[in-house]
Amino acid sequence: MRLGIPGGLVTLGGTERCDLVDLSCSGARVALTNALDDLLAPGDGALLRVAGLEAFGEVVRRDSSAIAFAFEERLAEGDVLAVRRHAERLAGDPTSALRQAAHNWVTGGR
After folding, report:
1. What does the pLDDT look like over 9-39, one tens digit per residue?
2. 67 Cβ neighbours under 8 A, 6+ residues apart
3. How many Å apart are CA 24 and CA 105, to the nearest integer?
4. Cα–Cα distance between 79 and 33 in angstroms, integer?
5. CA distance linking residue 40 with residue 35, whole number of Å
6. Would you state the pLDDT for residue 1?
7. What is the H or E stretch that residue 49 is in?
8. Tens digit of pLDDT for each residue in 42-92?
9. Which helix H or strand E contains 71, and what residues bound it?
10. pTM reported for the whole predicted model
11. 67 and 40 in contact (C-beta within 8 Å)?
12. What is the residue-wise DSSP string for the chain?
């Protein structure tokens, strides 16, 4: 499913902001920020946090703008659908994305 919602990646180097681009039961694609550019390479693990969901995965590939994860444990279809509903709410209210990003910053990215 195509998304575009703010999230966070927890790595050995700390927690960084990211944007979730795609999500399925088996993995995700995450847009890179400058802070993440040098942190993650294929084979590295990270915890993805987005819309109340947390999933551990391994980087399977990366390019100049995104990284692709394979989750250690498949997500339930209900969890994927919940993230989709969250994305639809954000798309319907442009200020909601800003509020969510501000909330994530204040609460440490959760």
Report:
1. 898 888 888 888 889 999 999 987 665 556 7
2. 29, 30, 32, 36, 40, 59, 61
3. 26
4. 25
5. 10
6. 46
7. strand 45-50
8. 999 999 998 888 999 999 998 878 899 999 999 999 999 888 887 777 776
9. strand 66-71
10. 0.73
11. yes
12. -EEEEEEEEEETTEEEEEEEEEE-SSEEEEE--GGGTTT--TT-EEEEEETTEEEEEEEEEE-SSEEEEEESSPPPHHHHHHHHHHHHHHHH-HHHHHHHHHHHHHTT--
> What per-residue confidence (pLDDT) applies to 103?
66
Q: Are 34 and 57 a contacting pair, CB within 8 Å?
A: no
Q: Is the pLDDT of residue 110 over 70?
A: no
- 16 within 8 A of 9, measured Cβ to Cβ: yes
Q: Which pair of structure tokens corresponds to residue 7?
A: 């999230």
The position carrying tokens 């919940």 is: 82
